[in-house]
Amino acid sequence: MSKQSEAVKRWRQNTKQKLIMAMGGKCILCGYNKCNDALEFHHIDPNVKETHWGSMRANIKSLKEIVREMKKCALVCSNCHKEIHSSRSETRLPDPCPTIDEEKLWAIHEGVHEDVPKDNCPFCGKLKPTWYMTCSLQCGYKMSSTRKIDWAKYDVLKMYETMSTSEIADYVGCSSGAVLKRIKKLDPMDTIRKQKGSMQKQKVNNTIENKRQINKQLRYIPDAEIIQKYNHLNNYEAVGREYNVTGAAVKRRLRKIFNQQNILIA
Q1: Are the C-beta atoms of 42 and 98 separated by less than 8 Å?
Q2: Within-domain flag for 31
Q3: What tens digit of pLDDT does each residue of 81-106 get?
Q4: Residue 20 domain-assigned (yes or no)
Q5: CA–CA distance, 170 with 173 (Å, rounded to integer)
Q6: What range defines the domain where residue 93 resides?
Q7: With left for phi above 0 and alpha for psi between -120 and 50, is residue 6 left, alpha or beta?
Q8: What is the DSSP code (8-state) at residue 221?
Q9: Whether pLDDT at 19 is above 90
Q10: What element of type H or E holds 74?
């Protein structure tokens, strides 16, 4: 996993932990609190729902945007969540229903709340919230200076000819952005990236042209034979495999045949 992917995964885990702590830390119905992954956010009124945690988790939002949506939600466990949505269950939310404590959330986020889990800073040893890598910017600068990459070990331009920036990042142990910066430094005119882009474009064009040439073979097959195959297999892709062409080409050919015979085709 690349450094960038690890950072995103860490953000998702830490943000959910903060939200759970600010919403009481347990299911409001049964009190379950063993595993964060089994706790979910249920919209009290589905009519005011704009988005959901899965979407915000996939497309990272600011904490302010997340809080705005969490004010509409209650913290429940997976089992209770399913029971709430089941028509065969009588499980219902309490009225009034507790939601997120915004003041507590910001205190947790800033690391000043008493419930915040803490560990030691790897550089100065001071206590810090577990979701921060260091206790301060000064220690953060120290950490970044110790993680400097010896680029002289790697022929990045040679690697870039056959590998993507994310693949290089995984191999070197850095972010894709750091790889791009190195490439731009070594190749300020951006010739390699342009050359690689044109080669990829040519490869795509060649693939499309090859498909066209293959699909042209279909015009030499009698109409009756294609119709017979289609009636037997009842699937464009299956007919295409019989003649080594695409299903789309078979569909176009059948449309042409049936239009000439004034027969509709789905």
Answers
A1: no
A2: yes
A3: 999 999 888 889 998 899 999 999 99
A4: yes
A5: 5
A6: 3-110
A7: alpha
A8: S
A9: yes
A10: strand 73-77
